[in-house]
Design goal:
single chain; mainly alpha; 57% helix; elongated; Transposase; Homeodomain-like_sf
Length: 133
């Protein structure tokens, strides 16, 4: 089964380290190859032993918890499946900037470009976005 977060750089790097450990590459060599501290790779090794690559995949990517609850996230996912015109934008294309504007208008919170992309990815709608701001 494909996991939408596998494309996030931090998760892809963590999974690459996990695959190396799984293949028997020594911890210190994984740390050096991946540019990680030994303690980080030890943590990954422990997680790998307990729950495999899924355990590594499920480690959070940092930051504070989202201000949007499950209901708000569901509304947002549904909105992003439609046209931006339905929400007052002058185009049929979603962009990161339009997503952030929609969130601010609807929920009164501001997110960075990076977090907005992460949110769209988590919601399974990042495919709807163009490359512009």
């Amino acid at each position: 089964m494909a996991h939408p977060n596998n494309d996030l750089p931090s998760i892809a790097r963590r999974l690459a380290a996990g695959r190396m450990l799984h293949d028997g590459v020594p911890l210190a060599q994984v740390a050096q190859a991946m540019g990680m501290k030994n303690a980080t790779v030890e943590k990954y090794q422990h997680l790998l032993e307990k729950g495999g690559l899924d355990a590594l995949r499920d480690v959070g990517v940092g930051g504070r918890p989202s201000s949007l609850d499950a209901e708000a996230r569901a509304w947002l996912a549904e909105a992003l499946r439609g046209s931006p015109r339905e929400y007052g934008f002058d185009s049929d294309n979603w962009t990161n900037l339009r997503l952030r504007e929609l969130i601010t208008r609807r929920f009164g919170v501001s997110y960075s470009r990076v977090y907005a992309w992460r949110l769209a990815t988590d919601l399974g709608v990042s495919y709807r976005f163009g490359r512009s701001a």
